[in-house]
Amino acid sequence: MAPPCPVCQAPSNGFHFGVEVCSACSSFFRRAVFKNRKFRCYGEPVNSCEVISTGNALCKGCRLAKCLAVGMKKETVQQGRESYGKRELALVSLQRSSLNIRLEFPVPYFMMESVKNQYTHLESVRLVVHLNEGAIATPKRHTYKDTDKLMFREYDVVTRWVINSFPQLADFPSDQRTILLKHFYLQFFILESGFIACKKGRNDVWFLPSGDYIDCKNLASFYRDPTLTKVTTQPTPPENAAKVMKGTCTGCRRKVWNTMLKDNIDQFEFFALSALILFQTGLEGQSESCMETCKKIRSTVQRELLQYYAAKNTDTIRMGNVLSLLPSVLSSTYKMLDDMELMYIMNKKDNSFFNFFTGREYV
Protein backbone atom coordinates (compact mmCIF):
# COMPACT_ATOMS: atom_id res chain seq x y z
CA MET A 1 0.00 0.00 0.00
CA ALA A 2 1.35 3.44 -0.92
CA PRO A 3 2.48 5.64 2.01
CA PRO A 4 0.40 8.76 2.70
CA CYS A 5 1.37 12.01 1.04
CA PRO A 6 3.10 14.15 3.71
CA VAL A 7 1.24 17.22 2.41
CA CYS A 8 -2.41 16.10 2.23
CA GLN A 9 -2.39 12.46 3.45
CA ALA A 10 -3.75 11.07 0.16
CA PRO A 11 -1.90 7.96 -1.16
CA SER A 12 1.45 8.99 -2.66
CA ASN A 13 2.49 7.75 -6.10
CA GLY A 14 6.23 8.39 -6.28
CA PHE A 15 8.94 11.00 -5.77
CA HIS A 16 8.17 14.45 -7.11
CA PHE A 17 10.50 17.41 -6.61
CA GLY A 18 12.49 15.56 -3.97
CA VAL A 19 9.64 14.17 -1.85
CA GLU A 20 7.31 11.17 -2.14
CA VAL A 21 3.91 12.86 -2.58
CA CYS A 22 0.61 12.32 -4.40
CA SER A 23 -0.05 13.37 -8.01
CA ALA A 24 -2.40 16.18 -6.99
CA CYS A 25 0.12 17.88 -4.71
CA SER A 26 2.86 17.38 -7.31
CA SER A 27 0.76 19.13 -9.98
CA PHE A 28 -0.27 21.90 -7.58
CA PHE A 29 3.36 22.57 -6.58
CA ARG A 30 4.58 22.55 -10.19
CA ARG A 31 1.89 25.01 -11.29
CA ALA A 32 2.37 27.31 -8.28
CA VAL A 33 6.15 27.50 -8.70
CA PHE A 34 6.15 27.72 -12.49
CA LYS A 35 3.67 30.61 -12.42
CA ASN A 36 5.31 32.18 -9.34
CA ARG A 37 1.96 32.27 -7.57
CA LYS A 38 1.56 34.03 -4.24
CA PHE A 39 -1.34 32.67 -2.20
CA ARG A 40 -2.98 34.28 0.80
CA CYS A 41 -4.55 32.36 3.66
CA TYR A 42 -8.00 33.55 4.76
CA GLY A 43 -8.38 31.06 7.60
CA GLU A 44 -8.75 31.76 11.29
CA PRO A 45 -6.13 31.77 12.67
CA VAL A 46 -4.13 32.72 9.58
CA ASN A 47 -1.66 30.23 8.08
CA SER A 48 -2.82 27.30 10.19
CA CYS A 49 -5.41 25.58 7.95
CA GLU A 50 -5.59 21.80 8.00
CA VAL A 51 -4.35 20.41 4.67
CA ILE A 52 -6.16 17.08 4.33
CA SER A 53 -7.48 15.49 1.12
CA THR A 54 -11.17 15.08 1.97
CA GLY A 55 -12.72 16.18 -1.32
CA ASN A 56 -13.15 19.78 -0.13
CA ALA A 57 -11.17 22.73 -1.47
CA LEU A 58 -7.82 23.15 0.26
CA CYS A 59 -6.32 26.46 1.34
CA LYS A 60 -3.74 27.12 -1.37
CA GLY A 61 -1.55 29.27 0.82
CA CYS A 62 -1.25 26.63 3.54
CA ARG A 63 -0.90 23.85 0.98
CA LEU A 64 2.05 25.54 -0.72
CA ALA A 65 3.65 26.30 2.64
CA LYS A 66 3.33 22.65 3.63
CA CYS A 67 4.81 21.50 0.30
CA LEU A 68 7.89 23.57 1.07
CA ALA A 69 7.93 22.49 4.71
CA VAL A 70 8.09 18.78 3.83
CA GLY A 71 11.05 19.43 1.52
CA MET A 72 9.70 19.89 -2.01
CA LYS A 73 12.28 21.85 -4.00
CA LYS A 74 11.41 24.85 -6.15
CA GLU A 75 14.63 24.60 -8.14
CA THR A 76 13.69 21.21 -9.57
CA VAL A 77 10.60 22.75 -11.14
CA GLN A 78 12.64 25.54 -12.68
CA GLN A 79 15.14 23.09 -14.11
CA GLY A 80 12.51 20.55 -15.20
CA ARG A 81 13.73 17.69 -13.04
CA GLU A 82 11.89 15.03 -11.10
CA SER A 83 13.25 11.97 -9.33
CA TYR A 84 12.19 8.82 -11.15
CA GLY A 85 15.41 6.89 -10.57
CA LYS A 86 18.87 6.89 -12.15
CA ARG A 87 18.04 4.46 -14.94
CA GLU A 88 15.09 6.52 -16.05
CA LEU A 89 17.00 9.79 -15.94
CA ALA A 90 19.66 8.26 -18.16
CA LEU A 91 17.05 7.30 -20.73
CA VAL A 92 15.21 10.59 -20.43
CA SER A 93 18.43 12.42 -21.18
CA LEU A 94 18.54 10.72 -24.56
CA GLN A 95 15.38 12.57 -25.50
CA ARG A 96 15.97 15.80 -23.59
CA SER A 97 16.95 17.68 -26.72
CA SER A 98 13.53 16.97 -28.21
CA LEU A 99 11.86 18.70 -25.26
CA ASN A 100 13.62 21.95 -26.18
CA ILE A 101 12.59 21.91 -29.82
CA ARG A 102 9.80 24.33 -30.60
CA LEU A 103 6.58 22.51 -31.32
CA GLU A 104 5.62 22.24 -34.96
CA PHE A 105 2.02 23.31 -34.43
CA PRO A 106 1.47 26.33 -36.72
CA VAL A 107 0.02 28.64 -34.05
CA PRO A 108 0.17 28.62 -30.21
CA TYR A 109 -2.15 25.97 -28.72
CA PHE A 110 -1.59 26.35 -25.04
CA MET A 111 -3.44 23.31 -23.69
CA MET A 112 -2.26 20.97 -26.45
CA GLU A 113 1.35 22.19 -26.15
CA SER A 114 1.40 21.08 -22.51
CA VAL A 115 -0.04 17.68 -23.48
CA LYS A 116 2.59 17.34 -26.21
CA ASN A 117 5.48 18.04 -23.84
CA GLN A 118 4.16 15.65 -21.21
CA TYR A 119 3.57 12.93 -23.81
CA THR A 120 7.23 13.12 -24.84
CA HIS A 121 8.09 12.61 -21.18
CA LEU A 122 5.58 9.74 -20.95
CA GLU A 123 7.38 7.93 -23.76
CA SER A 124 10.66 8.30 -21.84
CA VAL A 125 9.09 7.05 -18.62
CA ARG A 126 7.73 4.02 -20.46
CA LEU A 127 11.23 3.09 -21.55
CA VAL A 128 12.17 2.77 -17.89
CA VAL A 129 8.98 1.13 -16.64
CA HIS A 130 8.90 -1.58 -19.27
CA LEU A 131 12.67 -2.06 -19.22
CA ASN A 132 12.49 -2.70 -15.49
CA GLU A 133 9.84 -5.34 -16.16
CA GLY A 134 12.16 -7.25 -18.46
CA ALA A 135 10.97 -5.88 -21.80
CA ILE A 136 13.37 -6.47 -24.67
CA ALA A 137 14.15 -4.47 -27.77
CA THR A 138 12.46 -6.94 -30.12
CA PRO A 139 8.64 -6.60 -29.99
CA LYS A 140 7.03 -9.60 -28.30
CA ARG A 141 3.68 -11.22 -29.02
CA HIS A 142 1.54 -10.95 -25.88
CA THR A 143 -0.61 -13.47 -24.09
CA TYR A 144 -3.55 -12.31 -21.98
CA LYS A 145 -1.39 -12.64 -18.85
CA ASP A 146 1.27 -10.37 -20.35
CA THR A 147 -1.33 -7.74 -21.20
CA ASP A 148 -2.94 -8.00 -17.76
CA LYS A 149 0.40 -7.11 -16.14
CA LEU A 150 1.01 -4.37 -18.70
CA MET A 151 -2.30 -2.69 -17.95
CA PHE A 152 -1.53 -2.54 -14.24
CA ARG A 153 1.73 -0.73 -14.98
CA GLU A 154 0.27 1.48 -17.67
CA TYR A 155 -2.64 2.65 -15.52
CA ASP A 156 -0.26 4.32 -13.06
CA VAL A 157 1.97 5.74 -15.81
CA VAL A 158 -0.92 7.12 -17.87
CA THR A 159 -2.63 8.54 -14.78
CA ARG A 160 0.53 10.48 -13.94
CA TRP A 161 0.78 11.73 -17.54
CA VAL A 162 -2.84 12.92 -17.50
CA ILE A 163 -2.50 14.77 -14.20
CA ASN A 164 0.72 16.44 -15.34
CA SER A 165 -0.80 17.33 -18.73
CA PHE A 166 -3.99 18.84 -17.33
CA PRO A 167 -3.24 20.78 -14.11
CA GLN A 168 -6.98 21.48 -13.81
CA LEU A 169 -7.39 17.92 -12.51
CA ALA A 170 -5.52 18.83 -9.32
CA ASP A 171 -8.43 21.08 -8.34
CA PHE A 172 -11.01 18.28 -8.64
CA PRO A 173 -12.00 16.34 -5.50
CA SER A 174 -10.29 12.94 -5.48
CA ASP A 175 -13.52 11.02 -6.12
CA GLN A 176 -14.24 13.13 -9.22
CA ARG A 177 -10.70 12.61 -10.54
CA THR A 178 -11.15 8.86 -10.11
CA ILE A 179 -14.43 8.90 -12.06
CA LEU A 180 -12.80 10.77 -14.97
CA LEU A 181 -9.66 8.62 -15.00
CA LYS A 182 -11.52 5.30 -14.86
CA HIS A 183 -13.77 6.42 -17.73
CA PHE A 184 -10.72 7.58 -19.69
CA TYR A 185 -8.15 4.82 -19.35
CA LEU A 186 -9.50 1.97 -21.51
CA GLN A 187 -10.69 4.39 -24.19
CA PHE A 188 -7.21 5.90 -24.30
CA PHE A 189 -5.72 2.39 -24.47
CA ILE A 190 -7.72 1.76 -27.66
CA LEU A 191 -7.23 5.24 -29.13
CA GLU A 192 -3.46 5.23 -28.60
CA SER A 193 -3.17 1.85 -30.31
CA GLY A 194 -4.90 3.39 -33.32
CA PHE A 195 -2.52 6.35 -33.24
CA ILE A 196 0.48 3.99 -33.20
CA ALA A 197 -1.13 2.12 -36.12
CA CYS A 198 -1.27 5.43 -38.03
CA LYS A 199 2.44 6.00 -37.43
CA LYS A 200 3.29 2.45 -38.53
CA GLY A 201 0.77 2.34 -41.37
CA ARG A 202 -0.75 -1.02 -40.42
CA ASN A 203 -3.51 -2.37 -38.20
CA ASP A 204 -3.21 -6.15 -38.41
CA VAL A 205 -1.91 -6.24 -34.83
CA TRP A 206 -2.91 -4.46 -31.64
CA PHE A 207 0.04 -2.19 -30.87
CA LEU A 208 0.78 -1.88 -27.15
CA PRO A 209 2.49 1.08 -25.43
CA SER A 210 5.42 -1.13 -24.37
CA GLY A 211 6.33 -1.76 -28.01
CA ASP A 212 4.88 -5.28 -27.91
CA TYR A 213 1.70 -6.37 -29.67
CA ILE A 214 -1.35 -8.65 -29.72
CA ASP A 215 -1.58 -10.81 -32.82
CA CYS A 216 -5.15 -10.14 -33.99
CA LYS A 217 -4.84 -12.74 -36.77
CA ASN A 218 -3.91 -15.47 -34.30
CA LEU A 219 -5.94 -14.68 -31.18
CA ALA A 220 -5.57 -18.22 -29.87
CA SER A 221 -1.94 -17.32 -29.11
CA PHE A 222 -3.19 -14.40 -26.99
CA TYR A 223 -5.57 -16.57 -24.94
CA ARG A 224 -3.01 -19.35 -24.33
CA ASP A 225 -1.69 -19.61 -20.77
CA PRO A 226 2.11 -19.90 -21.07
CA THR A 227 2.47 -21.07 -17.45
CA LEU A 228 0.64 -24.35 -18.04
CA THR A 229 2.48 -27.51 -19.01
CA LYS A 230 1.54 -29.58 -22.03
CA VAL A 231 -0.25 -32.12 -19.85
CA THR A 232 -2.30 -29.42 -18.12
CA THR A 233 -5.22 -27.99 -20.03
CA GLN A 234 -6.83 -24.59 -19.63
CA PRO A 235 -10.39 -24.41 -18.32
CA THR A 236 -11.31 -22.88 -21.69
CA PRO A 237 -9.22 -23.94 -24.71
CA PRO A 238 -7.51 -20.87 -26.26
CA GLU A 239 -9.08 -21.58 -29.65
CA ASN A 240 -12.57 -21.45 -28.12
CA ALA A 241 -11.76 -18.30 -26.15
CA ALA A 242 -10.53 -16.64 -29.35
CA LYS A 243 -13.80 -17.40 -31.11
CA VAL A 244 -15.92 -16.08 -28.27
CA MET A 245 -13.92 -12.91 -27.66
CA LYS A 246 -12.61 -11.97 -31.10
CA GLY A 247 -15.13 -9.11 -31.17
CA THR A 248 -12.81 -6.74 -29.32
CA CYS A 249 -10.04 -6.90 -31.94
CA THR A 250 -12.54 -6.97 -34.81
CA GLY A 251 -14.54 -4.04 -33.44
CA CYS A 252 -11.50 -1.88 -32.67
CA ARG A 253 -10.05 -2.47 -36.11
CA ARG A 254 -13.29 -1.87 -37.99
CA LYS A 255 -14.70 1.02 -35.95
CA VAL A 256 -11.58 2.84 -34.77
CA TRP A 257 -8.25 1.89 -36.33
CA ASN A 258 -9.46 1.68 -39.95
CA THR A 259 -10.98 5.16 -39.66
CA MET A 260 -7.87 6.59 -38.02
CA LEU A 261 -5.68 5.10 -40.75
CA LYS A 262 -7.98 6.29 -43.53
CA ASP A 263 -8.00 9.87 -42.17
CA ASN A 264 -4.34 9.65 -41.10
CA ILE A 265 -5.03 11.10 -37.64
CA ASP A 266 -2.09 13.27 -36.62
CA GLN A 267 -0.63 13.90 -33.21
CA PHE A 268 -2.55 17.10 -32.51
CA GLU A 269 -5.86 15.38 -33.32
CA PHE A 270 -4.88 12.42 -31.15
CA PHE A 271 -4.24 14.74 -28.18
CA ALA A 272 -7.50 16.62 -28.76
CA LEU A 273 -9.49 13.37 -28.86
CA SER A 274 -7.75 12.20 -25.68
CA ALA A 275 -8.69 15.43 -23.89
CA LEU A 276 -12.32 15.19 -25.02
CA ILE A 277 -12.51 11.60 -23.76
CA LEU A 278 -10.99 12.58 -20.41
CA PHE A 279 -13.30 15.53 -19.74
CA GLN A 280 -16.54 13.76 -20.58
CA THR A 281 -19.78 14.87 -18.93
CA GLY A 282 -22.85 12.98 -17.74
CA LEU A 283 -20.88 10.19 -16.04
CA GLU A 284 -22.32 8.22 -13.16
CA GLY A 285 -21.38 9.89 -9.87
CA GLN A 286 -20.11 13.05 -11.57
CA SER A 287 -20.92 16.24 -9.66
CA GLU A 288 -22.48 19.32 -11.21
CA SER A 289 -19.37 21.42 -10.56
CA CYS A 290 -17.17 18.75 -12.17
CA MET A 291 -19.42 18.68 -15.24
CA GLU A 292 -19.33 22.47 -15.56
CA THR A 293 -15.54 22.49 -15.47
CA CYS A 294 -15.39 19.64 -18.00
CA LYS A 295 -17.69 21.55 -20.36
CA LYS A 296 -15.39 24.59 -20.24
CA ILE A 297 -12.30 22.47 -20.92
CA ARG A 298 -14.02 20.65 -23.79
CA SER A 299 -14.93 24.01 -25.33
CA THR A 300 -11.30 25.10 -25.07
CA VAL A 301 -10.10 21.89 -26.74
CA GLN A 302 -12.60 22.24 -29.59
CA ARG A 303 -11.63 25.90 -30.07
CA GLU A 304 -7.94 24.97 -30.29
CA LEU A 305 -8.78 22.22 -32.77
CA LEU A 306 -10.65 24.73 -34.96
CA GLN A 307 -7.70 27.12 -34.80
CA TYR A 308 -5.39 24.28 -35.78
CA TYR A 309 -7.46 23.46 -38.86
CA ALA A 310 -7.77 27.14 -39.79
CA ALA A 311 -3.98 27.58 -39.61
CA LYS A 312 -3.51 24.56 -41.88
CA ASN A 313 -6.28 25.69 -44.27
CA THR A 314 -8.05 22.39 -43.59
CA ASP A 315 -11.76 22.01 -44.30
CA THR A 316 -13.69 21.87 -41.01
CA ILE A 317 -15.51 18.80 -42.37
CA ARG A 318 -12.42 16.93 -41.23
CA MET A 319 -13.14 18.01 -37.66
CA GLY A 320 -16.53 16.33 -37.88
CA ASN A 321 -14.93 13.15 -39.19
CA VAL A 322 -12.36 13.19 -36.40
CA LEU A 323 -14.91 13.80 -33.64
CA SER A 324 -17.08 10.98 -34.99
CA LEU A 325 -14.41 8.63 -33.67
CA LEU A 326 -15.48 9.32 -30.08
CA PRO A 327 -18.66 7.17 -30.01
CA SER A 328 -16.80 4.42 -31.90
CA VAL A 329 -14.05 4.37 -29.27
CA LEU A 330 -16.66 4.24 -26.50
CA SER A 331 -18.61 1.33 -28.01
CA SER A 332 -15.35 -0.57 -28.60
CA THR A 333 -14.45 0.00 -24.96
CA TYR A 334 -17.73 -1.52 -23.78
CA LYS A 335 -17.04 -4.60 -25.88
CA MET A 336 -13.52 -4.81 -24.48
CA LEU A 337 -14.88 -4.65 -20.92
CA ASP A 338 -17.35 -7.46 -21.71
CA ASP A 339 -14.52 -9.67 -23.00
CA MET A 340 -12.33 -8.83 -20.01
CA GLU A 341 -15.17 -9.85 -17.72
CA LEU A 342 -15.57 -13.18 -19.53
CA MET A 343 -11.85 -13.81 -19.29
CA TYR A 344 -11.86 -12.97 -15.60
CA ILE A 345 -14.72 -15.38 -14.90
CA MET A 346 -13.16 -18.21 -16.92
CA ASN A 347 -9.69 -17.72 -15.40
CA LYS A 348 -10.55 -16.35 -11.99
CA LYS A 349 -7.47 -14.56 -10.67
CA ASP A 350 -7.35 -12.18 -7.74
CA ASN A 351 -4.74 -10.03 -9.47
CA SER A 352 -6.76 -9.49 -12.65
CA PHE A 353 -6.69 -5.94 -13.97
CA PHE A 354 -10.44 -6.24 -14.61
CA ASN A 355 -11.02 -6.91 -10.91
CA PHE A 356 -8.85 -3.92 -9.97
CA PHE A 357 -10.37 -1.62 -12.56
CA THR A 358 -14.05 -2.35 -11.93
CA GLY A 359 -13.90 -3.41 -8.28
CA ARG A 360 -16.21 -6.34 -9.04
CA GLU A 361 -16.02 -9.56 -7.07
CA TYR A 362 -17.29 -12.98 -8.23
CA VAL A 363 -17.93 -15.85 -5.85
From TrEMBL:
<protein>
    <submittedName>
        <fullName>Nuclear Hormone Receptor family</fullName>
    </submittedName>
</protein>
<keyword id="KW-0862">Zinc</keyword>
<keyword id="KW-0805">Transcription regulation</keyword>
<keyword id="KW-0238">DNA-binding</keyword>
<comment type="similarity">
    <text>Belongs to the nuclear hormone receptor family.</text>
</comment>
<keyword id="KW-0675">Receptor</keyword>
<dbReference type="InterPro" id="IPR013088">
    <property type="entry name" value="Znf_NHR/GATA"/>
</dbReference>
<dbReference type="GO" id="GO:0043565">
    <property type="term" value="F:sequence-specific DNA binding"/>
</dbReference>
<dbReference type="InterPro" id="IPR001628">
    <property type="entry name" value="Znf_hrmn_rcpt"/>
</dbReference>
<keyword id="KW-0479">Metal-binding</keyword>
<keyword id="KW-0804">Transcription</keyword>
<keyword id="KW-0863">Zinc-finger</keyword>
<feature type="domain" description="NR LBD">
    <location>
        <begin position="72"/>
        <end position="362"/>
    </location>
</feature>
<dbReference type="Pfam" id="PF00104">
    <property type="entry name" value="Hormone_recep"/>
</dbReference>
<dbReference type="GO" id="GO:0008270">
    <property type="term" value="F:zinc ion binding"/>
</dbReference>
<dbReference type="Pfam" id="PF00105">
    <property type="entry name" value="zf-C4"/>
</dbReference>
<dbReference type="GO" id="GO:0005634">
    <property type="term" value="C:nucleus"/>
</dbReference>
<keyword id="KW-0539">Nucleus</keyword>
<dbReference type="InterPro" id="IPR000536">
    <property type="entry name" value="Nucl_hrmn_rcpt_lig-bd"/>
</dbReference>
<dbReference type="GO" id="GO:0003700">
    <property type="term" value="F:DNA-binding transcription factor activity"/>
</dbReference>
<feature type="domain" description="Nuclear receptor">
    <location>
        <begin position="2"/>
        <end position="79"/>
    </location>
</feature>
<dbReference type="InterPro" id="IPR035500">
    <property type="entry name" value="NHR-like_dom_sf"/>
</dbReference>
<dbReference type="GO" id="GO:0006357">
    <property type="term" value="P:regulation of transcription by RNA polymerase II"/>
</dbReference>
